[in-house]
């Protein structure tokens, strides 16, 4: 998923509790779903960042050859400016983009 196109806030934002728990009817269940999605988003972003930073990796043992790579710094700054995974997950939740199911309902 392309996280750069989601208009999630970068700063802390207050959300209406009724909008968050509306799909499930239970705020704790909604927060649990959002938290699991935030964990997934975080691991995807981390994997993508590590792949991009691995391109700049040098495997020399010499400390004299360590230098600042401007491209590497720009990539790192770009990922630092992205919204937090929680904000991305909440935006997905409010836009009804997260699929979830209650396993207790399917067992009965």
From TrEMBL:
<dbReference type="InterPro" id="IPR006110">
    <property type="entry name" value="Pol_omega/Rpo6/RPB6"/>
</dbReference>
<keyword id="KW-0804">Transcription</keyword>
<protein>
    <recommendedName>
        <fullName>DNA-directed RNA polymerase subunit omega</fullName>
    </recommendedName>
</protein>
<dbReference type="GO" id="GO:0000428">
    <property type="term" value="C:DNA-directed RNA polymerase complex"/>
</dbReference>
<dbReference type="GO" id="GO:0003899">
    <property type="term" value="F:DNA-directed RNA polymerase activity"/>
</dbReference>
<dbReference type="Pfam" id="PF01192">
    <property type="entry name" value="RNA_pol_Rpb6"/>
</dbReference>
<keyword id="KW-0240">DNA-directed RNA polymerase</keyword>
<dbReference type="GO" id="GO:0006351">
    <property type="term" value="P:DNA-templated transcription"/>
</dbReference>
<dbReference type="GO" id="GO:0003677">
    <property type="term" value="F:DNA binding"/>
</dbReference>
């Amino acid at each position: 998923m392309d996280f750069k196109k989601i208009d999630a806030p970068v700063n802390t934002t207050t959300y209406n509790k009724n909008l968050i728990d509306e799909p499930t009817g239970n705020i704790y269940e909604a927060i649990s779903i959002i938290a699991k999605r935030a964990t997934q988003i975080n691991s995807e972003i981390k994997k993508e960042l590590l792949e991009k930073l691995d391109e700049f990796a040098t495997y020399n043992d010499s400390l004299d050859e360590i230098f600042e790579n401007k491209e590497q710094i720009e990539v790192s700054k770009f990922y630092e400016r992205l919204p937090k995974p929680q904000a991305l997950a909440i935006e997905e939740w409010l836009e009804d983009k997260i699929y979830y199911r209650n396993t207790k309902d399917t067992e009965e």
